[in-house]
Amino acid sequence: MNASVIIDSETLALREFHPFKANGVTYLYMVPSAGIFRMDGPSDAILETLSKSPKVKTELIDELLSQFDIDLLLETIDELIEIRAIGDIDAPKDLVPNDLPPAGFPLTTMVLNVTNKCNLACTYCYEYGEDKIVDTQYGDQPRFMAEETAKESVEFLLEECQGQDVAHITFFGGETLLNFPVLQDTVAYARRRAAEEGKRIEFSLTTNATLLRPEIIEWLADNQIGVTISIDGPKEVQDGLRVFHNGKGSYDVVEPKIKELLKRHKTRPIGARVTLTQKNMDVLRIFRHLTEEMGFWEVGLAPVTTQDQRDYAITSQGKDNMLEQFEILAQEWLECALNDKHHGFSNVKDTLEEIHKGVSKAYGCGAGLGLMGVATDGNVSLCHRFAGSPEHIIGSIKEGIDRDKQEEFLVDHHIASKTDCHTCWARPICSGGCYHEAHVQYGTSSHANLHYCTWVRSWTHTCLEIYGALAEKNPEFLNRFDA
């Protein structure tokens, strides 16, 4: 029987998705929903046929009828239409919805910039270097956050995290440990107040490790404080850009302190955060040194945030080199995951978790929404990187959030306002990228980070392939991302 007798004449075409393969199986990453679907049966054949040109539904059926039963074809076409992989050629394109978060969206993470002073003078530092946006040397903000300001910040968080059982405080700087007494007092106060409110607060901090002492390490371990160490790699790498104010390298100072921290602090994983520059691009060596020789549980690597004319800015060739090495580590990560073993490359883990949870972002991150930064004077900014910047203040811990400013920010930074992103298949994961990066590169935080588009798409594709491989060979491993 000719299918045209049964099937209507609707013309079908491909809609928006990104295909990838894992172990010979085709998967579709749906845009903008971020759903992932495994293709089997005649799905591949239907998509392959429509990739050449749109087809009237009757023509599509007739062309494939020699390979597949008509009922199976009809069922598969309906399924592909349902997930919006294919559809009527005249149907409107799925537009990016301009839906703002609901009013009163809870604050879940507060970053306290307890000091804007640092004992290092890292060449590429976004706070003190050539691209700084806040005058931390001669500005009006206090160098150190007062204990009373920190306590008021805790009250601000408890007020703004309504409906949440758990909230997070991250201590940041400058060099965070320069204001260690305030950290101690704030943790004790926040724990007591959270208990009174029937909540729990979890704590973390970032440090350059130069000020770690036995009593500080004991306190970090006893209080289950998550710790991220800013470190760039082996001695010659670390000492190239992460130096004291007198120009002396910091590796010999931090190395024994970090090892003591890793030895003593077992209550929370200790991670390393690496800033990659054109001057330190040996990703594999850096990663192996920090995991195998130093002993870090996890290492995350990020390209430097800076303008292109800086001599440490990563070139186009450097980005390609970085991607090649990331992909090598990603394959190592996959081999470990297939055998239920740990691998410390957190860049893969973080992206896979978003893929698994079907994250489709309207914003590049939670800044100005679920995450905010508090400057030393108590002003509230989009995030810690903007703390102290008058242009990016959206409230204060005493007066609360300026809802008009917040709404203006949410409208301007929504993916719907970034027309450059509307045709990119990776937008559910990226959504234009980091606001601070955009501010440094383009002079406005609402601009999409177009200089990293190719890199982001390539890296996301690699992570999708890894996700598919796990789904095929060790699907139980993916359950770890459900927590």
Explain what you see.
- This protein has 483 residues and is α/β, with parallel strands linked by helices.
- The protein folds into 2 domains: 3-88, Outer Surface Protein A, domain 3 (Alpha-Beta Complex); 109-400, TIM Barrel (Alpha-Beta Barrel), CATH 3.20.20.70.
- The chain has helices at residues 43-52, 57-64, 70-82, 147-160, 180-196, 214-222, 235-241, 251-264, 283-293, 316-338, 346-356, 403-413, 427-430, 435-442, 453-473, and strands at 11-14, 17-22, 25-30, 36-38, 55-56, 86-88, 109-113, 166-172, 200-207, 226-230, 270-276, 298-303, 371-374, 379-381, 393-396, 400-401.
- Helix 4 (147-160) links the parallel strand 7 and strand 8.
Characteristics of this structure?
483 residues; globular; single chain; Outer Surface Protein A, domain 3; 2 domains; disordered N terminus; TIM Barrel; three-stranded antiparallel beta sheet; 15 helices; ten-stranded mixed beta sheet; alpha/beta
From the 3D coordinates, which CATH architecture of the largest domain would you assign? Alpha-Beta Barrel
CATH top level of the largest domain is: Alpha Beta
Question: What is the fourth-level CATH superfamily of the largest domain?
Answer: Aldolase class I
Biggest sheet: strands side by side, in what order? 12-11-10-9-8-7-13-14-15-16
Q: What is the CATH topology assignment of the largest domain?
A: TIM Barrel
Q: How would you describe the shape?
A: globular
Query: Rg to the nearest angstrom?
Result: 25 Å
Q: Give the total of beta strands.
A: 16
Binned, the helix content reads 25-40%
What's the N-to-C terminus distance?
52 Å
Average pLDDT rating: 93
Integer count of domains: 2
- Strand fraction equals 15-25%
Low-confidence stretches: 1-7
